[in-house]
């Protein structure tokens, strides 16, 4: 599988995002949180992923953009394992919820643990 994050996998629909936060479930691995909701998409995508970093924790846009880039990269590199665990299409949002300034290796480790918790929760 190619390690890509194409446009059709990006979560951009405001209604889907609102539905995700109102009816979705979540798993947490500090400082990350994954909110997900099983949903079918018109374009046939298996997953729609969005990332978010709160202004509450990082006041400067440059810092928020840096952590969003790291989250997207972690997703891109490890999405194959995530897709294998999903029996149906999902909308997902990956959130960074702390003012702790972790480096890429630590964020990648936490992301893998978060995806493993998601796999365990959806396959049981």
Automatic annotation (TrEMBL):
Gene3D superfamilies on file: 3.30.230.10
Matches recorded under InterPro entries: Ribosomal_Su5_D2-typ_SF (IPR020568), Ribsml_uS5_D2-typ_fold_subgr (IPR014721), RNase_P (IPR000100)
Tree of life domain: Bacteria
Catalysed reactions, as listed in the record: Endonucleolytic cleavage of RNA, removing 5'-extranucleotides from tRNA precursor
UniProt KW keywords: Endonuclease, Hydrolase, Nuclease, RNA-binding, tRNA processing
GO cellular component terms listed in the entry, alphabetical order: ribonuclease P complex
Signal peptide annotation: none
Pfam family, one: Ribonuclease_P
Entry keyword annotation includes Magnesium: no
Annotated EC: 3.1.26.5
Record-level Gene Ontology MF annotations: 3'-tRNA processing endoribonuclease activity; ribonuclease P activity; tRNA binding
HAMAP family from the UniProt entry: RNase_P (MF_00227)
Subunit structure: Consists of a catalytic RNA component (M1 or rnpB) and a protein subunit.
Protein's job: RNaseP catalyzes the removal of the 5'-leader sequence from pre-tRNA to produce the mature 5'-terminus. It can also cleave other RNA substrates such as 4.5S RNA. The protein component plays an auxiliary but essential role in vivo by binding to the 5'-leader sequence and broadening the substrate specificity of the ribozyme.
Name of the protein: Ribonuclease P protein component
Source organism per UniProt: Flavobacterium caeni
Organism lineage string: Bacteria, Pseudomonadati, Bacteroidota, Flavobacteriia, Flavobacteriales
């Amino acid at each position: 599988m190619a390690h890509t994050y194409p446009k059709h996998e990006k979560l951009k629909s405001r209604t889907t995002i609102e539905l995700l936060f109102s009816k979705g479930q979540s798993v947490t691995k500090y400082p990350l949180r994954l909110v997900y909701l099983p949903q079918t998409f018109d374009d046939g995508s298996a997953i729609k992923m969005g990332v978010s970093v709160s202004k509450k924790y990082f006041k400067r846009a440059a810092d928020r953009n840096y952590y969003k880039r790291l989250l997207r990269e972690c997703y891109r590199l490890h999405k194959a394992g995530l897709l294998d665990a999903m029996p149906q299409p999902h909308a997902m949002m990956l959130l960074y919820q702390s003012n702790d300034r972790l480096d890429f290796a630590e964020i990648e480790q936490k992301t893998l643990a978060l995806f493993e918790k998601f796999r365990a929760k959806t396959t049981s």
